[in-house]
Amino acid sequence: MSSVERSSDKVEERSETGLVYGLGGLLLMAFGGMLWYFNRDGGSLLLFSYICLLGGLGCVGYGANSLWQIRKIQSFAYDCPYCQVTNRLSAEPEADFTCRECHRLIPVQDRQVLPVHRVLCGYCREAHWYSEQRIVILCENCNHEIPITRGDGAVAHSRFAVQDDTRTYELSLTGYTHATEELITCLQQMLALNRNQVKDMLTSLPVVLLTGIPKKKAEMLSAQLSTHGAASDYHAM
């Protein structure tokens, strides 16, 4: 993560410091002036009034200097490659930094923002973005890895980030470890069958579960069955 501050953050910080010290100093000077007025003839608080006046003057001076420093803050503009919003930093970034609008991590190399590319997960079709810095993407939706390959200096997604597949698929149950309650319930919900029908089906494997379904659904159902100790297979029709 980049340690470079945003220009707006530094301006806000200096402005807040300037106002706090400036207003505080004015109040202290006002208090010191009041003490001096009532003790100007040699009262016991005369010395303390001088201290308040000098302290207030110092605070006002420090606050004014903080506001003056705002003019020296540099601003470097970088457009977010995801949402195109301009981010202004107080220095050139040497590492990735977060976009103020979309909160994505903006990739940086040699103090330049890298372009990003969009890719779809081949398992669940979730959209992801990657830059030349990425080697592999972990899908946030289905937790599958989407490897990124490089060739001849170009960046391209691997075969796991597949293109649209319009074919229909057939899903078959080929085996299972134990006919657990979880597996039976899973098949009941998947096939809209009663308990006895599911048990009968488990005695005659392999068996076709569903036909004419898209690849995405076949993959998701196959993964669901595997979590219950069942083996399945799907292929294009």
Chain-wise SSE layout:
Blueprint: H1 7-39, H2 46-69, E1 76-79, E2 86-89, E3 97-98, E4 105-106, E5 108-109, E6 112-113, E7 117-120, E8 127-130, E9 136-138, E10 145-151, E11 154-157, E12 168-176, H3 181-191, H4 195-202, E13 207-214, H5 215-226, E14 230-236
Antiparallel strand pairs: 1-2, 3-4, 5-6, 7-8, 9-10, 10-11, 12-13, 12-14
Helix pairs in contact: 1-2
Notes on the protein architecture:
The structure is a single chain. With 237 residues, the chain is an alpha+beta fold. The chain folds into four domains: 7-72; 74-114; 116-164; 168-236, Ribosomal Protein L30, Chain: A (2-Layer Sandwich), CATH 3.30.1390. It contains five helices and 14 strands. The strands form six sheets. It has a three-stranded antiparallel sheet, with no helix packed on it. Helix 1 runs antiparallel to helix 2 (46-69). The relative contact order is 0.10. The model is unreliable at 151-163 (pLDDT under 50).
Short description:
The protein has 237 residues and is an alpha+beta fold.
CATH topology name of the largest domain: Ribosomal Protein L30, Chain: A
Q: How many DSSP-defined strands?
A: 14
Strand order of the largest sheet: 9-10-11
Report the C-alpha radius of gyration, rounded: 34 Å
Provide the β-strand percentage band: 25-35%
The CATH superfamily of the largest domain bears the name Ribosomal protein L7/L12, C-terminal domain/Adaptor protein ClpS
Profile the largest sheet: 3 strands, antiparallel
